[in-house]
Amino acid sequence: MSETTITTKLYAQGGDTAFPKIVLPEIPGLAKIEVYESNGGYGALKKAIGMQPDAVTDEVKKSGLRGRGGAAFPTGLKWTFMPKQTEKPKYLAINADESEPGSFKDRQILEFNPHQLIEGIVIASYAMGIRTAYVYIRGEYYKWMKILQGALDEAYARGYAGENILGSNFSVNIYIHRGAGAYICGEESGLMESIEGKRGYPRVKPPFPAQNGLWGNPTTINNVETIANVPAILWNGADWFSKIGAQKHPGTLLFGVSGHVNSPGVFELPSGTLLTDIIYKYAGGVIGEKKIKMVIPGGSSMPPLRGDQLEGVRMDAESLKNVGSAVGTGGVIVMDEDTDLVKVLLRVTKFYWHESCGQCTPCREGTGWMRKILERMNDGNGKVEDLDLLIRVANNIEGNTICALGDATAWPVKFTIQRFRKELEEEILRQARTAA
Ligand SMILES: Cc1cc2nc3c(=O)[nH]c(=O)nc-3n(C[C@H](O)[C@H](O)[C@H](O)COP(=O)(O)O)c2cc1C
Questions:
Q1: CA of 183 to the centre of ligand 1 (A)
Q2: What pLDDT does residue 155 have?
Q3: For 254-268, what is the mean pLDDT?
């Protein structure tokens, strides 16, 4: 690839919009390596390899990039936790498990821009002195696994992965590891157990993965979207990135919008975009112009917002925290005024009950109890007092489990009841009358 082929089209394409498309640029055929290269692809890797590894980490740290896997943890800071002087092998694990209901954004990167992910993996490995990286992909993503493997083969053939990358003395091998359909294997320590060939039981932390990760060795786990941002940061600089979107949670975010909207889909928008703009401007508004009853802003485990609470809400970590929710994975689930909230809670709870690994008693038993209570309600045999019982069970799960699946199951139940008590009471009484 000659210098002249490098354009700024990739990594920061604005297109006909005022803001950049960093991880999903609108360039046809970008999944092919020739197209990626001819738009400047792998130019950031070239730049990174000419820098000191610590300077690469510093750039990511300065950019303010935060993890896109749910917790919005600062990425550069996470990378600094990896020990520099160690005899042990170090690992990078990319989380492509994407099993949270309402979350379907990482697969867009895998399908339409896999080379930017691969480029990000190689840059991250270089920065942290890692020679082995895994992409842990959910079992159901067979199609996306094939696309990624095809892209990896291309990257190896052109010397962007494997031994002596771009003629340097840096080498990293990248392996795809397929999951077998378990949500818990998206939790970072469950993921590592699964890569090690064991049952996906989350580990007690500390020790954290940077000390005791894969096979007891230092490991960094990052989400697909997080790592796909890295080449753009290296190419355009930390200052450029830090000025996009919300100051404390900069960059673009992929918002996967589903539910009762006219045009569901994944939209790459600056962080801090108004939730109402996402729903009405980008996702085409609510089907049949109905009112909104509830929106879950960040995937099914995040606290829901009331339809009359959406005005002025911005989609970034701080803003959502201020209104009692969280940005999670940016999976926006919109429910119209006719939505039966008992059915929603039952559906969501059934998922977490099914996916609970069973290791911690509060989660194993509590998810089952909540499911039974909600089934009873849904059958028309519920009582208004059951709402308090559900909150009690949820409170006994929250914070009392090894991993955050416990919170993921407690929050939707607890916050939906707190925020929609009147509607739920009416629904229980209506269903009881119907059943009588
Ligand atoms: C039950 C559970 C499931 C999770 N699933 C995913 C997932 O599918 N993808 C993901 O990136 N993070 C998932 N996470 C978060 C990861 O544990 C981890 O924080 C994340 O991969 C770190 O990447 P980031 O710092 O780039 O966001 C999950 C967490 C929990 C508790």
A1: 10
A2: 98
A3: 98
Q: State the distance from the centre of ligand 1 to the C-alpha of 370, rounded, in angstroms.
A: 24
pTM recorded for the entire structure: 0.96
CATH number for the domain including 62? 3.40.50.11540
| Domain hosting residue 309, numbered range | 252-336
Residue holding tokens 């480029």? 119
pLDDT at 349: 98
Ligand 1: centre distance to CA 401 (Å): 16
Here the CATH number for the domain that contains residue 261 is 3.10.20.600
* Structure-model confidence comparison of residues 435 and 262, the more confident one: 262
Same domain, 94 and 34: yes
**pLDDT tens digits, residue range 26-56?**
999 999 999 999 999 999 999 999 999 999 9
Kindly give the distance from the C-alpha atom of residue 424 to the centroid of ligand 1, in angstroms, as a whole number.
Answer: 31
Could you tell me the two tokens for 370? 């909540």
CB 27 within 8 A of CB 9: yes
Instruction: Share the mean pLDDT of the chain.
Output: 95
**Ligand 1: residue whose CA is nearest its atom 30:** 187
Distance 352 CA to ligand 1 centre (A): 15
What are the backbone angles phi and psi of residue 335, rounded to the nearest 5°?
-125, 130
Residue of minimum CA distance from atom 25 in ligand 1: 67
Token readout for 372 is 């039974």
The preferred substitution site among 75, 100, 195 for testing ligand 1, maximizing ligand atoms within 8 Å of CB, is 100
Domain total for the chain? 3
Counted residue by residue, the chain has a size of 436
At residue 281, what are phi and psi to the nearest 5 degrees?
Answer: -85, -45
- Residue 4 vs residues 38, 167, 168: alpha-carbon distances, Å: 9, 20, 21
Q: Ligand 1 site: residues with CB under 6 angstroms? A: 67-71, 73, 95, 97-100, 183-184, 186-188, 221-223, 226, 403-405, 408
- What is the Cα–Cα distance from 190 to 357, expressed in whole angstroms? 9
Of the candidates 266, 234, 273, the residue with the CA atom closest to the CA atom of residue 109: 266
Chain-centroid distance of CA 286 in Å reads 25
